[in-house]
Amino acid sequence: MNEEKALPLNDFISYDDNTMLEKSLAFFDHIKRRHSVRKFSDKPVAKSVIENAIKAAGRAPNGANHQPWHFCAISSSEVKKQIRDQAEQHEKRFYDGSAGEEWLDALKPLGTDANKPYLETAPWLIAIFSQKKGGLEESDNKQNYYIHESVGIATGFLITALHTAGLATLTHTPKPMSFLSKICKRPDTERAYMLLVVGHPAEDATIPEHAVKKKSLAQICTFM
Ligand code: IYR
User: Fold this and answer.
1) CB 22 within 8 A of CB 16
2) 103-114 per-position pLDDT tens digit
3) How far does residue 224's CA lie from ligand 1's centre (Å)?
């Protein structure tokens, strides 16, 4: 049975062809300037900016509109220190061999290692959780759908919102990430999805040469 109640699409903005082309180019120019940053300044970032970016992430398309995500935004130095300590322990095992040779070889051009000082330097860490169960209402315990797709898109919105506000981010995925659930006191129905490091880049921040090599349109797209 279709129980849809519909509203008019009255906040959608259309553009003429030229404006559309200009806007698509302007957005490409804007998003081209997004780089993963691994050296952050300790300059504070207002909580309201983080709140607005998370509200934007919460607008992502998702399975059955259950919005199967939770964002834990952390600015507490004590909590950041706990996260750094635990992440570095896991990363040390990873870089000391648990990752396997092929994976470690793939990471060499990025120059990453087990030291993660930015987990304490950056003013904000956002731990992103996916919810296996939930629903639209706070009290719901329904099955969620397309959870990884939904949370992945929301994370993309979040990164884009923060970049648009003039902030740098780093997607960090220590392996395993279950310690984040404990530190953030999240329920068993949730899994840690990603840790986003957020702040101003350090003045001497760099980007690996390897990271700016992007596949061409012809490589990533087929028109039919
Ligand atoms: N989580 C580790 C390793 C790592 C893995 C991938 I795939 C990267 O693109 C980058 C790093 C770390 O953060 O160092």
Assistant:
1) no
2) 999 999 999 999
3) 35
User: What is the position in ligand 1's atom list of the atom closest to the CA of 114?
Assistant: 14
Query: Considering only CA atoms, which residue is closest to atom 8 of ligand 1?
Result: 107
User: How far is the centre of ligand 1, averaged over its atoms, from the C-alpha of 94 (Å)?
Assistant: 9
pTM: 0.97
Task: Single out the residue of 129, 102, 110 nearest to residue 183, CA to CA.
Answer: 129
User: For residue 165, how far is its CA from the centre of ligand 1 (angstroms)?
Assistant: 25
The residues lining ligand 1, judged by C-beta closer than 6 Å to any ligand atom, are 91, 107, 110, 112, 172-174
Q: Assign 1 a pLDDT band (cuts: 50, 70, 90).
A: low
Nearest-CA residue for ligand 1 atom 13 is 172
Task: Report the C-alpha gap between 167 and 200 in whole angstroms.
Answer: 5
Other Cβ atoms closer than 10 A to 101: 8
Query: Please, how many CA atoms are within 13 Å of residue 140, restricted to the half-sphere of its CB?
Result: 15
Give the residue from 180, 149, 187, 129 showing the smallest Cα distance to 63.
149
Distance CA 85, CA 91 (A): 10
**Which pLDDT value is given to residue 46?**
98
Ligand 1 center–CA 45 separation, angstroms: 25
Residue 2 scores a pLDDT above 80: no
Average pLDDT over residues 22-34: 98
* Alpha-carbon torsion, ordered 12, 59, 24, 197, to 10 deg: 160
